[in-house]
Specification:
Its cofactor is Mg(2+). By secondary structure, the chain is an alpha/beta fold. It is built from 8 helices and 15 strands. The structure holds adenosine-5'-triphosphate (ATP), 1-O-pyrophosphono-5-O-phosphono-alpha-D-ribofuranose and magnesium ion (MG). Adenosine-5'-triphosphate binds next to α3.
Length: 296
C-alpha cells in the first residue's frame, strides 16, 4: 500500500512527524525525493506536491493521500460520505487536524466591492478556479475566473481582477495587501484521503487506527499517583479519567495505612487544577507524562 505525502512546503514536516508518531517511520534512502519505504514492509511513501496528491490517488499511483481539503476540492470534489463516492471520487477518511486554513473571497478594502453580488460581470483571480466556479454557481453570481499560480493578492491592485479567492489563516497576508474578506468559500484542513476501492482494506484500517491513536493522544496526559485506599472515592471524583482510572494495590505506608496506585488519562488543560485537588485528597508521588498513542 502506498501513501502520497507532500514533498515540500508547509505540510511536509508535520506529515512526516505524524507518520513517525503513528509508528510508520519513513526510512532514509538516497532516492527519498520520490519514493521511500517505511518500517512496515507493506506500506511505502510517494512524495508529491500537495496540489498533485488528489490526482495521484485517483489515478492509482497511490492508495492513500495526505493533503489539504482545498486541494482535493479543487481536483474534483469530495463527497460527504464514502457511500456516495463514485469510483473517481476521493473518500475523506480522517481530519488530521493541521494545515487549518480558509479559502475566502476578498477584495480591496477601499474599493466598491462589498458583497459577492457586486462581482456580477467582474473578474476573480485564484489558484483554485474549480472551487471558485462552484462557489459562484452556488451563490448565483456570474463572474470571470482567471487562474494564477501565486501572488494572487497582488492581482486586484494591478487591475487584473476585482477580487480574489485565496487561502487565509492568520489574515496577515490579506491585511498587508489591503484586502478585506467578503465571504467564506471553504474551510480546509489536512485530511487522509483514499480511493473508494481501498477503504475496506485491512491495511488501510490499520493506518487509520494508527493516525487516530496519535490524534487521541494529543492534548492528553497520563497521571500516576499513590493515594490512601481509604480516600480512593475522593481521588476518583477528582479524576473521572477515560472509562475510570486504573487502581492497583501497593504496599501500605509506614503507619500501615492501605495504599493504592492510581493511573488515569486526563485532558492536558485539566492537569494544572487536578494536581492541587489530588494533593488535597491525600495523593502523593504524582507523575504527569506524555502519551504517544492512545487506542480508545
Ligand atoms: N497559511 C496557511 N495556513 C495553513 N494552511 C495553509 C496555509 N497556506 C496553505 N495551507 C495549506 O497547505 C497546503 C499546501 O500549501 P503550501 O504552501 O505548503 O504548498 P505550496 O504552496 O503548494 O508549496 P509549493 O508551491 O512550494 O509546492 C494548502 O493547500 C493548504 O491546505
Ligand atoms: O493568512 P496568512 O497567515 O497570512 O496566510 C495566508 C498565506 O499563506 C499562504 O501562502 P504561503 O505562505 O504558503 O506562500 P506561497 O504563496 O509561496 O505558497 C497563502 O497562499 C496565503 O498567501
Ligand atoms: Mg503556499
Amino acid at each position: 500500500m502506498r501513501i502520497a505525502v507532500p514533498n515540500k512546503g508547509r505540510l511536509h514536516e508535520p506529515t512526516l512527524s505524524l507518520l513517525e508518531r503513528a509508528g510508520l517511520h519513513v526510512e532514509e534512502t538516497a532516492d527519498r525525493q520520490l519514493y521511500a519505504d517505511t518500517v512496515d514492509p507493506d506500506v511505502s511513501i510517494l512524495f508529491a506536491r500537495a496540489a498533485d496528491i488528489p490526482e495521484y490517488v485517483r489515478d492509482g499511483a497511490a492508495d492513500l493521500g495526505i493533503t489539504g481539503l482545498d486541494q482535493a476540492a479543487e481536483s474534483g470534489g469530495v463527497p460527504d460520505s464514502a457511500s456516495e463516492a463514485g469510483e473517481d471520487d476521493l473518500v475523506d477518511l480522517l481530519d488530521l487536524g493541521y494545515g487549518s486554513c480558509k479559502l475566502v473571497l476578498a477584495a480591496p478594502e477601499d474599493g466598491d466591492i462589498s458583497v459577492v453580488s457586486d462581482l456580477d460581470g467582474g473578474t476573480i483571480a485564484t489558484e483554485f478556479p474549480a472551487v471558485t466556479r462552484d462557489y459562484l454557481d452556488r451563490v448565483g453570481v456570474d463572474a470571470d475566473v482567471v487562474t494564477v499560480t501565486g501572488a494572487t493578492e497582488l492581482t486586484p491592485h494591478v487591475d487584473m481582477a476585482d477580487a480574489i479567492v485565496d487561502i487565509t489563516s492568520t489574515g496577515t497576508t490579506l491585511k498587508v495587501n489591503r484586502l478585506a474578506v467578503i465571504d467564506d468559500v471553504l474551510d480546509s484542513s489536512v485530511r487522509l484521503f483514499a480511493r473508494p476501492d481501498v477503504v475496506d482494506d485491512p491495511k488501510v484500517e490499520q493506518v487509520v487506527t494508527a493516525f487516530e491513536s496519535v490524534l487521541a493522544a494529543d492534548g492528553r496526559r497520563y497521571l500516576m499517583m499513590n493515594a490512601p485506599k481509604a480516600r480512593l472515592d475522593e481521588v476518583k471524583d477528582v479524576i473521572p479519567g477515560l472509562g475510570g482510572p486504573t487502581v492497583m494495590d501497593v504496599e501500605a505506608d509506614e503507619e500501615g495505612n492501605g495504599m493504592v496506585a492510581v493511573h488515569a488519562v486526563v485532558e492536558e488543560h485539566d492537569v494544572f487544577a487536578t494536581i492541587s485537588e489530588l494533593k488535597a485528597v491525600g495523593a502523593s508521588g504524582i507523575l504527569v507524562t506524555e502519551i504517544e498513542r492512545l487506542i480508545e
